[in-house]
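Regulatory protein zeste
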Amino acid sequence: MANSNGNFIKRKRSANWDALEKSLLKSCMKEFVSIIENKNTDTNTNKSKTIAWQKVMKSFSELNSRVRELAEVKQQWRTMKLDAKKNMSQVKTSIKCTGGGPKPLSPDPETIDILSMIPQEFETDFNVFDSDSITNPVVQSQEQSLVNTPTQDYFITPGDNNENVQENITPLPLKMPTEIVRRKRKLTFNDVNDNKYTAKREERDLTRERNHILVSCIKEEHGLKMKNMLEAHNFIKEEHNLKIQQMLLEKEETQLRVEKLKLEILLLKTNLPQ
């Protein structure tokens, strides 16, 4: 790297990562890998990633004996992912090889750990327009159900001597295939388009059915809400009527008490001496 004067400055090289540090980094990343490996780049996601990296760095620094910078930790995580992808690519290539060679490679434990943490990074792309990678389920089922040409079995009955063996060969019933096997054919561009349009039509049908169910649910929910509101209104109205009746009864009771008092006063006046 060059400075302002044009002189090259030697970049400071950090210490190599040993297996213990890599294992520690993996264990610290497991809790926050879903946040850090999120492909979204909006403000909230980037803020969550920054907080997640800070927590990873805190846990890693507390348990690690060597001081590491955040940039070193990020770079080591990227290197570990790249190594795991390279290892998986070699494994897939060795599996596709024909026989006669050495045993196919197997992924190492570190690759398996990273694969379990970020399986979406190891998904294989599929292109329907790539003729070398098209796999038709009908053709595959035909290949599996493919049978040989009709054959005829024989059994030999014991004879008197070897000269009669040819005469004692009795043919068994001829075995015919139970179904006609079609020849394997290569998919054409029209077949791919038909499959594509069929998938789109099925997707539209599913979307229409889902919208229909959603509208039905909304209507049913609205009906239940209206029913509940009507019941609540009737309850409040009935409660109001009961309160009015209670007030009338209390008023009538008060009037009766007043009349009683008046009668008592009148009785007292009549009993007083003249």
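thats it. The beta strands are 154-156, 169-171. The two ends are 131 Å apart (CA to CA). bye
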